[in-house]
Amino acid sequence: MDALDALDPTTTALLSIDFQRDIIAESKLAPEDAAARARFEAAIEAARGALRQARRHGVLVVHVRVAYSAGYPEASPHGGLAAYMKQEGVLLDGSPGAAIDARVAPEGDEPILTKHGISAFSDTGLLRMLRMGGISNVALAGLVTHYAVEGSAREAADLGFRTLVLTDACASGSPARHDMALTNLAPLCTLTDVAGFGAALAAAPAPRPRFHMAFAVRDLEATRAFYCELLGAKPGRSAERWIDFDFWGHQISAHLVAEDALAQAPTNPVDGDQVPARHFGVILPRAQWQELTERLREAGVSFLIEPHVRFAGKPGEQATAFVLDPSGNAIELKSFAHDGAVFEVHGSDHK
């Protein structure tokens, strides 16, 4: 096993892949001999442990399954995984065999993604989910090692994620295929077990405190659409006149008020821009900042202040952009070259 240092739960995701009844026990895909079935059962038990560790530490858990529509329209006439599943008549969406095994079933609002190929990234929206969530570490558990686990791990590594394969939480019908897949992945990934995964999560320093901010809006549904669908925030608790959002790990609350309560905010000059004096925002890694600002532009969102770099070549250099939510609240999206630059100062006044 590879040595594993502390793992930040807030930037880590656990992918639980293809733990489905047709693959485990209920079709021609399932192992036939007792030894292979025992290996699958051991992997499921280890995956249960990985899920417990992830949930205990607040890690994002994503369940990925493979399933096909009636008639298998996803199958190519040239072969491939879907064509093979059509031939065998397995993993039909909605069938008992396509269901995730109850022992490793999703809990609460844990997302479930459906794929039609080998990799968990195959047309599932997983990459966007991880990028929007600020995830940099991806741990994998699943069946089978030499298909879904290896394919997903290779792609995760190519996409720049620190990729961990939980070797005891995956299995193949053949021990030789399991071992060969891990040998192939060793130069690309960190090979560890569930115990090492849990220990690395426990060794992470305490998370930074979260901030809370409440703000006034004129329309809750328009606010929900803007923050969730455009900015990628997650909705939290809500009532008739308010809603909470998970804003990159911080809690913000929108409160419905009368139209005349929303006054025009004053501005101050900052590096040549008239910046709204009252605003809030988020500091993102540069790649995530670029992805978000490009997505907003593609969605037709008008920028109050266009994306650009301010204080170029000086301490505190930062990429910034401003948008207004549907109620006119100003939001700044910014990015620094590194975390240590957030509080750097120079001679001129700046924030």
Distance between the terminal alpha carbons, to the nearest Å? 46 Å
Q: Can you identify the CATH superfamily of the largest domain?
A: Isochorismatase-like
Number of helices: 9
CATH class of the largest domain: Alpha Beta
Broad shape: elongated
Low-confidence stretches: 347-351
**How much helix is in the residues?**
25-40%
Content of β-strand: 25-35%
- Global structural class: alpha/beta
What order do the strands of the largest sheet run in, or round the barrel if closed?
3-2-1-4-5-6
Question: What is the N-to-C succession of helices and strands?
Answer: EHHEHEHEHEHEHEHEEEEEEHEEE
Give the overall average pLDDT: 88
**Rounded Rg:** 23 Å
- Overall number of structural domains: 2
- Per CATH, the architecture of the largest domain is 3-Layer(aba) Sandwich
Give the strand tally.
16
Find the CATH topology of the largest domain.
Rossmann fold
How would you characterize this protein structure?
The strands form four sheets. The protein has a six-stranded parallel β-sheet with strand order 3-2-1-4-5-6. The chain has a four-stranded mixed β-sheet with strand order 7-10-9-8, with helices on one face. Strands 13-16-15-14 form a four-stranded mixed β-sheet, with helices on one face. With 351 residues, the chain is an alpha/beta fold. A hairpin with a 2-residue loop joins strand 8 (234-239) and strand 9. Residues 347-351 have low confidence and may be disordered. Helix 2 (34-56) runs parallel beside helix 7 (194-202) and helix 5 (145-158) packs parallel to helix 6 (175-185). It contains nine helices and 16 strands. It folds into two domains: 9-202, Rossmann fold (3-Layer(aba) Sandwich), CATH 3.40.50; 212-341, 2,3-Dihydroxybiphenyl 1,2-Dioxygenase, domain 1, CATH 3.10.180.10.
